[in-house]
Amino acid sequence: MAITRRSFLVGAAGAGIGFGLGALSHQFPLASPHVGPDWAPNDETFVASTCLLCPAHCGIRVRLIDGRPVRIDGNPLHPVSQGGLCPKGRAGLQLLYHPSRLKGPLVRVGPPGSDEFKPIGWNAALDRVASALSSASQPGGATPVEWMVGDVSGVCGDLVAGFCGVLGTTRVSVDDYRDGSADLLGMCQGIATAPAFDLAGADMVLSFGAALSEAWWSPLHAARARDAEVAGRSARWVQVDTRLSRTAVGAHQFVAIRPGTFGALALGLTYVIVKEGLYDADLVARQVAGWEDWTGADGTPHVGYRTLVLRHGRSDEVSARTGVPVATLTALAKQFGGARRGVAVWDQGVAWRSGGMADALAIHALNTLTGRLGRRGGLLVQGPMPGLPGPAEQKAPGAVDLASAPLTATSWPAAGSDPKVLFLYHANPVASLPDPDTARQALARVPLVVSFSPFFDESARCAHLILPDHTYLERWQDALAPAAVPSPVWGVVRPVVKPLVNTRATGDVILGLATRMGGSAAAWARWKSVEDLVHERGLSLAGAGRGSAFVDRFRQRELGEVEGRGWWLPHGQKPEEFWQTIVDSGGWFDPLIDYEDGASRSQLPDGRVWMFPAEARARLSKSGRALAEGFLPIDESLEARDGGPRDFPLQLIPFRVMTLASGGTPLMPWLLEHLGALNGSAWETWIEIGPETARSEGLQSGQRVRVESSRGRFEATVRVSPGAQPGVVSVPYGLHSRVEGWGEPNGANPLSAVGRAVDPVSGLPDWQSTRVRVVRI
Amino acid sequence: MARWGMVIDLDKCNGCQACEVACRSENNIAVGGPQAASEHRTISWMQVRAEVEGEWPDIRSRFVPQPCMHCDRPPCTLVCPVQATSIDREGIVNQIYARCIGCRYCANACPYTVKFFNWHKPDHPASTEPGLNPDVSVRPVGVIEKCTFCSHRLQKAREMARVETRPLREQDFTTACADSCPTGAIVFGNLDDPTHRVAELSRDPRAFRLQEGLGTEPKVYYLSRRD
Fold first, then answer.
1. Count of CB atoms within 10 A of residue B60's CB?
2. Could you read off the pLDDT of B15-27 as tens digits, one per residue?
3. ipTM, interface predicted TM-score of the complex
4. Do the beta carbons of residue A168 and residue A396 sit within 8 Å?
5. What is the mean pLDDT of residues A722-747?
């Protein structure tokens, strides 16, 4: 068909109109937006509560739109976190709204491991548990009921402990990250609690592998303290570590050290401090025991730590052992000895190793020698909380103390222990223990396994009943600050939203079970609910005669000053008003740190502090390691584990990062997308190796590998990093659990290769004595 | 007229990534998943990158959080064929999702690689929808998205100031990342107002900007004692 002038013009005009309308449609959509008659502007509110995703228990402030939580921020009134919040705390929203949350209680209908469950009513489920508990209880004998708990604090921990007392069982194992420092302080200072570190008042913080910015007890406390000005100058933070960790990047100086030699370095630093006379000899003579030679009560002569340091701490020998150059070691010792308010810090990175107690003792001795105990900027003991009423008060004699209950990782399943009922609360042993099959078999032997998991995790799949707990954003609880923080804080956890699904707070379930069982159990459970219990505790704080509801930073300082002079203002409030202020602000705290209180230095009868006391020496002599003098942190056997370097040429060191600390990460995809800040890892477990190791083993970044030890294996992706030490494979722990439904991380449990190794001295896991080989797959 | 900008103190940043997650929560950024991560297609308006140099044991390293630089001379706006991305009068580089045709020219023109394309339909499971921030639209597949300096907060703050018949104050408007930083490393404000902290900090002797030689005039300044 020929194109005429007319048809061309018509076509061109039509196309022009068409294009014009198309372009205009972006600006003027044809359908007008529909606004219903019930439309109203969004109602924005904020509610203060406490984060329960790790033991730091930071203050949170949840933004709600029309009653729906849409963002979690830090609570600016919280005395420790001061408005800061880690990525995990912010991602808690994803836990609340996770598509795979269980919608209500479930009962198993298929064989174990079959995933065949059906819904059950709460009353029927509780009746079943109560009758199992009643039939299991044996008057006069130990009731075969067992609890396995994770990080539980405040009333929930007390309810578990108290309920165990009522049931007459002491079988509780805890899955937490204690570092043995309470044990150590008990021996050296007669104080049976973990130490607090006054980081905010320190002008030098010397961290021996402590993950201060990552999985430490209170990373926000550390983050706030690092940039503090102390006595008019900036604090200096030094990180001694076996790999370039995130804490090391954030420190002012990074000192690289060979694995397992933290204590040897502390010994070397002490040597220089002694040689340079950088300690107060008079003070040490008056307050310290074990420094000079002494004779025990039984007449046994003991060589003093001073002599041992001079014998084993020579700088050239320590340098050869630790890999720290003599110049660095000397400069570090002079800095630490010369600092007015320095403190040496350690955590699981030191303690979770066979013989690790010797290292911790040497680090603690550094603080003792330089007079940092009970001083501003030094090692303190958290001030006491006022006594809180609660269920643990009434526990039966011999009932459990969760703080000293055995670790799940080292004690479960106990041989010959056949409980009739097993409760899993914040515990997922099938995923977290090195050997999932052993855990599954142990669970299969129990007639009734009850899981309180809000998700269908690996262990819940092996349960007979799942009674899903609320998330921490839907329930009442309370949460204490960790012992590492100098002053006591009592955070209130309150529901910021009504429960989204048919779940029930485990604390209320425990009270319900006790009521159903009748008798003494019912008498013990005198509270209507956990809310009632938290309320009672809040009211008791009104009568404590000290402390305050959370206030802003300036008021915090003012209250501290006032209390330091022996005054306290009762705020002119009735107890109920005080309680409401506590709830609205997020909690209660006592700002006073009493640096003059000698009891925070030593509670031993003679008021002295011990260095390497006889008890520690005796315990360490049974470590099974070739330690110098039997107890010093110099280990000649480091090279010769697991058949020597030929079969397994590399050393495996698991570490913990903030995004993976304390579990739960697989439920929060925001964290999975940002797992490793240092190497951009996401959604998978990785191993870090240095370029030299990569060359010798023929490996490249991005390759999938199998890491094998004599005990087991796991798979991971290689990340080659100059921040990784030659001969060492570092691997993050924490991506072992898996819940289907929202992203599928490719995680692994590195403990499969580590196995069940336990340090016989401290009873803590031994994570750092595993040699491995890396095989490409 | 304000000129919004940001100062990030690298000497304070400890790489905690709270800013990344706060940004995701504030701006309804969808979860990409492991597949997107393996293809380097994860969307993250704020990215904490690590610079590691040297050889063991002498390692130098620092974290560098990178949002959109909101350049005064943004290359991305020059190449957009449909004016979906443009710089407004107060210096914020916007992205209009309804205009974007997904040509990805801007993502390629950006020397800082901070513009992200939605290769897949963003995944917001139904149960998570109540948790979305109603102040920020979710994006469809096939468009570019990027950091907006939380301009929705600016709109709210400006309206609030108008209702209260007062000028906009420094504390009225800040970004989610600056709000979230536990070490106070990120500071946001008006670079042209000498009373704002950013104005002072951007003139600090430690201040520098990324790839200044390109002439893009970024409004994100970094502070570092190191070169």
1. 13
2. 999 999 999 999 9
3. 0.96
4. yes
5. 91
| Interchain pair A677, B17: CB under 8 A | yes
DSSP string computed for A682-696? -SB-EEEE-HHHHHH
Residues belonging to chain A: 777
CA distance linking residue A600 with residue B31, whole number of Å: 48
Q: Quick check: A363 and A261 in contact, CB under 8 A?
A: no
Residues 115-144 of B with CB under 8 A from A: 125-128, 130-134
Confidence of residue A227 (pLDDT cuts 50, 70, 90): confident
- What is the number of domains present in chain B? 1
Q: Which of A70, A78, A719 to mutate to test the interface with B (most CBs of B within 10 A)?
A: A70
The per-residue pLDDT for range B181-216, each reduced to its tens digit, is 999 999 999 999 999 999 999 999 999 999 999 999
Instruction: Output the domain CATH number for residue B124.
Output: 3.30.70.20
Beta strands in A248-374 (DSSP E): 253-256, 288-289, 294-295, 301-302, 342-346
Q: What is the pTM of this model?
A: 0.93
Work out the percent of chain A whose per-residue pLDDT is above 70. Answer: 93
A213 touches chain B (CB under 8 A): yes
Place of tokens 């705390």: A89
Chain-chain contact of A690 with B13 (C-beta, under 8 angstroms): no
The residues, ordered by sequence, that sit 6+ positions from A722 with a Cβ below 8 Å of its Cβ are A244, A690, A691, B52, B53, B54, B55, B56, B59
pLDDT tens, residue by residue, B89-125: 999 999 999 999 999 999 999 999 999 999 999 999 9
The CA distance from B60 to the nearest CA of chain A, in Å, is: 8
CATH architecture classification, A196-380? 3-Layer(aba) Sandwich (3.40)
Tell me how far apart the alpha carbons of residues A611 and A502 are, in angstroms, rounded to a whole number: 55
Q: Which chain B residue lies closest to A91 (C-alpha atoms)? A: B21
Task: Say which of A86, A226, A249 has its CB closest to residue B63.
Answer: A249
Q: Which fold has domain A639-776?
A: Barwin-like endoglucanases (2.40.40)
Whether the pLDDT of residue A639 is over 60: the answer is: no
Domain ranges of chain A: 1-31, 106-177+397-537, 196-380, 639-776
